[in-house]
Design a protein that fits this description.
two-stranded parallel sheet, mainly alpha
Length: about 70
């Protein structure tokens, strides 16, 4: 996983597990944090970082989509 915080990974897995039975009935949002010092040196690199973080969140949440990503 691309996430840097173990607590975040555990939280996403917990949320994903609990929402799994009702996933189609909830709006699921997650946020993006990018360390500008290390990850956003260029537009291309920023796009790659966003994708990696989103894919890691999707994996952690056990879903193939989120309704709001900010």
């Amino acid at each position: 996983m691309y996430l840097t915080n173990t607590a975040t990974v555990k939280n996403e897995k917990l949320v994903g597990k609990e929402l799994s039975p009702i996933r189609d009935n909830v709006v699921l949002a997650t946020k993006l944090f990018i360390d500008r010092e290390t990850e956003a040196n260029s537009i291309d690199h920023l796009e790659q970082s966003i994708r990696k973080h989103l894919e890691a969140s999707l994996e952690g949440l056990g879903t193939d989509y989120v309704d709001l990503y900010y």
